[in-house]
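DM between two lab members

TW: hey, do you still have the protein-glutamine gamma-glutamyltransferase entry open?
JB: yeah, one sec
JB: this one, 690 aa:
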Amino acid sequence: IAATQPSTNWHLKENARDHHTSKFSSKELIVRRGQAFVITFSGTEQPEQNLTFIAETGPKPSKLSKTQATFGISSTVSKENWSAVLQSTSSNSVSISISSPPNAVIGRYKLSVQSTSSGSSSPANLGSFVLLFNPWSSGDDVFMSNKAECEEYVLEEFGIIFAGNKNHINSFGWNFGQFQEDILNICLSMMDRSLNYRQDPATDVSHRNDPKYLGRVLSAVVNANDDQGVLLGNWSGNYEGGKSPSSWTGSGEILQNWKKSGFRPVRYGQCWVFAAVLTTVLRCLGIPTRTITNFSSAHDADGNLRVDEFYDASGNNLNRTADSIWNFHVWNESWFSRSDLGLSYSGWQVLDATPQEESGGIYQCGPASRKAIKEGDVDLDYDCPFVFAEVNADCMYWNYDPTTGKKTLLFSKSTTIGQFISTKGVGRDDRVDVTNDYKYEEGSTKERDIFKKARKKLGLEDKFDPTAPTPQEIDQKPDISGKFKVAGPLEVGKDLNLILILENLQSDAKTVHVNMTAWSTVYTRRPIHEIWKDSISITLSPKEEKQFPIKIPYTEYQQQLTTDNTIQVTALCHVEGGIQVLVQRDITLDNPAINIQVLGEAKVNKEVDVEVIFTNPIDMEVTDCVLQVEGNDLLRGILQIDIPPLKASETSNTKFKLIPFEKGSKHLLINFSCDKFADIKTFKMVNVID
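TW: and the structure you got?
JB:
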């Protein structure tokens, strides 16, 4: 080979089109494994058949660990190894089609070429390229046969995340932004910041052909625990020193901030932020991934498939154990095969980057096969017992007396946990319910059989549990029943009106003393501030039902509300001569509406006006108003606009200009905050034409 550096034409446009990587904004070749790409280079004087190529990745490339491949020109593509096939030659250049095996290690490769005939001359560097997973290739572990699903779960940059609670599901848009500038580089450096890489770089890199390995490792790097990862979690309700978790609208800003700060954890995340960032990273690397929301999600800290909640005599949630039931929890599903478990466990796998419990000594979770969860195969790798409990645990509600330490079972429920499990539809902006993919129908014999099977596999059936309620306690029947009914709008800025309905189930009169409390909470149902309390004593005639209206004025809860807009209302009913009855309801208040209008047609490289309209619904002034706007292919980065204070009932009309730079259906995301309302979100689809 001549001493001159060969010049390489990577055919960026054609290769990107063939490999579904056109959306990346990069000057570097980005291709998918198990598929050919073409390069042309000049500066080689030797006959082509004497050329040998070397592709290598990681800090210590070696053939043994499959991080280095040496291959000459052959007439056909190899299925198992790297290969090169001659396309064409001219007097001073040669075009070669290079193929990688479908199980190649992913990451950034250096490609060089050497002449075999010229003895010991050193290889000439052709440059670098990035190799990704390939869900379009049938030989790949992440192969997905449905092309529309590939588009959604790998190429779609907009997502919808479901939140609220089981009585009141709401949703908001998210900009995954996996193709934004520098995100791929950040994802590659994330892999190099894992504990596994720090302990043994060469071995870690050699495992990067395996989606289950990378999914598990990256679920740890997305949270800051253990490894100074991307996001620091905070569920305290106080987010000083950082951004409140509900204020983010996309992953790009978080990942960019992490890199800019020299990889210091970004403050702050909660479950949907961890899940959204993991979605971005895995989609970027080519693993089909989506976010999943589980309503009434159990956090079973002690692994007994049971969640215990304790209340004092006044009805306050005592927050005594690490067990909890979250209004909702968001995790990920990624699509790949499970050769380690058997083909029936392939398909969607649960990964969870939210730091809840340690697994293998660090905060990581999954991949747990969704099929294994449904069938109660909790002995299979990884973390199936924890995920199984999130959707299936039984709930026990206790009264606890702190002075005597005595606890009394109020009631137990086996159908509360794991409801309305939700994800965004493919190619549509709506909710799809996947509860039946996680478990058999609640209350069916099959569902109870699976629960028993899981308990047995965990060794819980044969072990005496001194903390468990006795069968007598579980079978006891209350004399009265109760529920809270909503009587009016559930909106921030309006009074909260409820009705407590109590019914005597017996044919003799009952005297009941009721202690009621309302607390503001975060979405994990952790109590933050007491808002209101009251107590009443009543007599219920035989079979009588009585209603008691409750009003909590906005002025009473406004100061105490968290950014989650959640309130837990509890009534503990002490029935004379009978067992106590707990009535509770978790309430999520809606923010006022905000409106976006695109004024005119959106065209590539042409200015278009957008107007955002917000009316202050309360009878006091709102200040510190800030509007945040982002949207892929519509604007670069994030636009922040300060809005003057708004008097009672005043409307603000904020106008700004966009210059879209790609055609197609795009999403514009808006986040509006002020001193009285946190993070009012909305999104709008904008159809950009040429």
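TW: got it. The chain is about 15% helix and 40% strand. Residues 105 and 249 are 32 Å apart (CA to CA).
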